[in-house]
Amino acid sequence: MKTEQLWGYRRSDGRVGVRNHVLILPTIVCATQAAKQVTELVHGTVSFIHQHGCAQVGVDYEQTFRTYVGMGTNPNVYGVIVMGLGCETHQGRSIAQEIAKSGKPVELVSIQDHGGTIGAIAEAARIATKMVQDASALVREPFDISELIVGTECGGSDACSGLSANPAVGYVSDMIVDKGGTVILAETTELIGAEHLLANRAVDDRVAKKVYQVIEAMEKRAIMMGVDIRTGNPSPGNRKGGLTTLEEKSLGAAAKAGTRPLQELIDYAQQPTKKGLVWMDTPGHDIEQLTGMVAGGAQVVLFTSGRGTPTGSPIAPVIKIATNTPMFEKMRENMDINAGTIIEGTESLESVGERVFHELLLTASGKLTKAEILKQYDFGIWRIGPTF
Amino acid sequence: MASFYRTIMMNSKDNVATALDNIPAGSVVTVTCQGKEYEIEIKEIIEFGHKFAVIPIKKGEDISKYGEVIGVASKDIAIGEHVHIHNVEGKRGRGDKINENRTAMGL
């Protein structure tokens, strides 16, 4: 078998990055605007807007904490400037200390300690200027596919998702697993109705049992609220595209997972401990799912869409794959690959799969995705408790 | 006389097929799957990506696609009729059927 390689950056914790960002990480909503100002001043920095980081407790606090740390430690990030306010529950200092364990450069700037907004922006920009120049001195090196953690996702699905793009991603998923890499399957909500197919592929009874546990927990949330889950999922756009029930959508979504054994089932924003196919427990919400996988260490994401979406991450390239040609034509500036040729009968599933795999290697070696070019920096944490 | 409109049926156990073109009412389409072949008169417009019945389906019967259950018929459905949210209900995540208490935490 030919050994395909990607060109990336080795980090001090041993992981391999496919981007070399300096991340301005606001750990509290109050610091997000200042962080964004820093990215406007300093080339090579990225950040994101969110509404989290204060008045959170218990498991909800821990999940948000884990997500921030995971964003900072993702190997696509060269170094981090944590920006806090000073009085919040998610203290910038604790998050910076946790990220620093990876060995990468980490600095902390707090609005209350650095003379308010202007002082904090100036201090962060000063630090970022040096960090970006240091980052730019690194040169890409060749690495094996086995270094990759690839997230898979479908958003804005239609009836073609389960026929074209998702099975094509499933084909690529098997290729990555066979070459020793890791693939994350997620969106637990959108596996309701297809869980038996994955439980049958679990490596042992413990993993199979956990499949039924996370599905039951997700289904119980709808039952607790006294609603038909279909009022939220499938969404109005899914239904217009011909998807009738959540079960139908799930069976199409599960095609992304290919055919290889399910190695483990991990929590939201947790780093996989095994190679091969791994299931991360996330909701179906596109941005919350994407954030969980990237915080879990995914360096690249394969994202299929039937209705078309702009989704992207501040630190990980998201390769957008259209399920049908009319949408690909209509949203060319958002879509990277067209799998609609499978529907038209002009290209085989395997051939589309090979194209996706080739694009994955190019992207992991530096080619920009449409979402990166359009600066689509989405971020959202799956909150599992109320705000107090 | 069968038309050129394209359809796909995923599994021979299925009772629905998916339109791969916008199919006008009154068209006759051929659906083939794993050695089975159906000639079906389409009763109403079926848009690209939407489903139609390939055999008669009674209220309360399961709807099958991919050889798996995707929901249950909420009305009798005739051959060639559109199969969608107006005549199919999901069976999963149905808090509305189990718990009518509509507070956020189910308390």
Task: Describe the 3D structure.
- The complex is a heterodimer of chains A (388) and B (107).
- Helices cover 38% and strands 17% of the residues of chain A.
- Chain A is built from 14 helices and 14 strands.
- Chain A has two domains: 21-136, Response regulator (Rossmann fold); 143-373.
- A seven-stranded parallel beta sheet of chain A has the order 10-11-9-8-12-13-14, sandwiched between helices. A four-stranded parallel beta sheet of chain A has the order 4-3-5-6, sandwiched between helices. A three-stranded antiparallel beta sheet of chain A has the order 2-1-7.
- The model of chain A has no long low-confidence stretch (mean pLDDT 95).
- Chain A has helices at residues 32-41, 58-73, 92-100, 116-136, 165-178, 195-199, 205-224, 236-240, 246-253, 286-295, 325-330, 341-344, 349-364, 370-373, and strands spanning 5-10, 16-17, 21-26, 45-46, 77-84, 106-110, 141-144, 149-154, 182-185, 262-266, 276-280, 300-305, 318-322, 337-338.
- Chain A is of the alpha/beta class.
- Chain B starts with 6 loop residues before the first strand and ends in a 9-residue tail after the last helix.
- Chain B has a single domain, classed as Archaeosine Trna-guanine Transglycosylase, Chain: A, domain 4 (Roll).
- Chain B is built from one helix and nine strands; from the N terminus they run βββββββββα.
- With 107 residues, chain B is mainly beta.
- In chain B, the strands form three sheets. Chain B has a four-stranded antiparallel beta sheet, with no helix packed on it.
- In chain B, 4% of the residues lie in helices and 33% in strands.
- The interface between A and B is large, with 34 and 40 residues.
